[in-house]
């Protein structure tokens, strides 16, 4: 293990520290790590770099020396979120040699969505173990997210802590014993005493204990799903505090358990994570936060994390280099996805946007139509909805829209549920591209208010709200 790049008296992170240090010091722009309990995230937080822990099965773990085979993930360390996601698109692929590999797609990254809801622990559940500096840094990070337009939603984090406790108090430690069993039997002294103590403590659990833990985990996964109906992602400290090497040597098990407060539950609960730098503490050491989402939402976390990291203005790693300008080009739909343009109540932050999110859609672009359309406020609709109508050339206007990408199956289900007089047709975008999107039947706009002069539904609704 190397030394912390900002203070050699402090620990640099977890078991993938070498990879993180190489990136933070500028030896390489990218490196791989592994992540079972947080080793792909905590070293990133302590090194002022990005740590991407993909959805489990997205990247093959074939050839990785296992810790817990059912939980291990190959992770990515990078100086920026865009670099990490570029790496992910290269290494993500199903692999028959990995029994946990799954046919997930590494999506492109779109813009940060409006109306974003970020879950945070209730104030009394935020654990920093007396580190008031980290506590203040976390509050400052939440304020920055709010300034970027996110809504901060306090949630009960205790079920997630309960899942974290299962990692080292439940049967998953026995997976580590399976890996090291032959070595322990033949040469126990070759293992570090602390490692040997942790592993041997799991060797005598019963099958009944294991099934009880499996049942508890399934219940906690149900709580996870319920929680994510109210939020789009969690944002937590990457680590609650940081310790000196001397402190950890004096109490390795206890302090490492504390360091995993916000990381140990992630793989058990089938989530993806993205650790990003947040600030520099007054003592010159980094503080980071981690975005957590449901499996498959890797690109959605990246859309949030890249905007946040750019807004911090922090240098790259331990280098003096400024972050490169944030690229603004739209994301392209991935293979098997269909883009869908929305114009009204399905826009980010609008009442029906949850229908898109629940269908697994992701925002890939904000743009305008070609100047061939008129927008009407449809009377008697609940919630209020507009209708977009194609008109003759020269009689239209460019209307603001969002383009979301859905899987083919989700697109079919979504279109089947669109109520009359709305329909899904082909929209022409500014620049000549065409996508499927919401249109309205011509008969439905007879007598409806033409609101095209507002340029879009969001501006119209803002004016309506101000007039109340």
Q: In short, what is this structure?
A:
The protein has 468 residues and is an alpha+beta fold. It contains 14 helices and 16 strands.
Helix content: 25-40%
Structural domains: how many: 2
Percent range for β-strand residues:
15-25%
**What's the CATH architecture of the largest domain?**
Alpha-Beta Complex
The major pleated sheet works out as: 8 strands, mixed
Radius of gyration: 24 Å
CATH class of the largest domain: Alpha Beta
Which spans have pLDDT < 50 for at least 5 consecutive residues? none
Average pLDDT over all residues: 90
Strand order of the largest sheet: 1-3-2-7-8-6-4-5
Shape descriptor: elongated
CATH topology of the largest domain: the name is: Amidase signature (AS) enzymes
Terminal Cα span: 62 Å
Q: Name the CATH superfamily assignment of the largest domain.
A: Amidase signature (AS) domain
Number of DSSP helices? 14
List the helices and strands and how they pair.
Elements: H1 17-24, E1 30-35, H2 42-47, E2 50-53, E3 73-78, H3 81-91, E4 117-121, H4 132-147, E5 151-155, H5 158-169, H6 173-186, H7 193-200, H8 207-227, E6 233-237, H9 245-250, H10 252-259, E7 271-280, E8 286-294, H11 298-312, E9 337-342, H12 353-358, E10 362-368, E11 373-378, E12 385-390, E13 400-407, H13 408-416, E14 422-428, E15 434-440, E16 449-450, H14 457-467
How would you describe this structure to a colleague?
The chain has 468 residues and is α+β, with helices and mostly antiparallel strands. It folds into two domains: 17-312, Amidase signature (AS) domain (Amidase signature (AS) enzymes, Alpha-Beta Complex), CATH 3.90.1300.10; 337-467, Gamma-glutamyl cyclotransferase-like (Hypothetical upf0131 protein ytfp, Roll). 32% of the residues lie in helices and 21% in strands. The chain contains 14 helices and 16 strands. An eight-stranded mixed sheet has the order 1-3-2-7-8-6-4-5, with helices on both faces. A hairpin with a 5-residue loop joins strand 14 (422-428) and strand 15. 44% of the residues are buried. The mean pLDDT is 90.
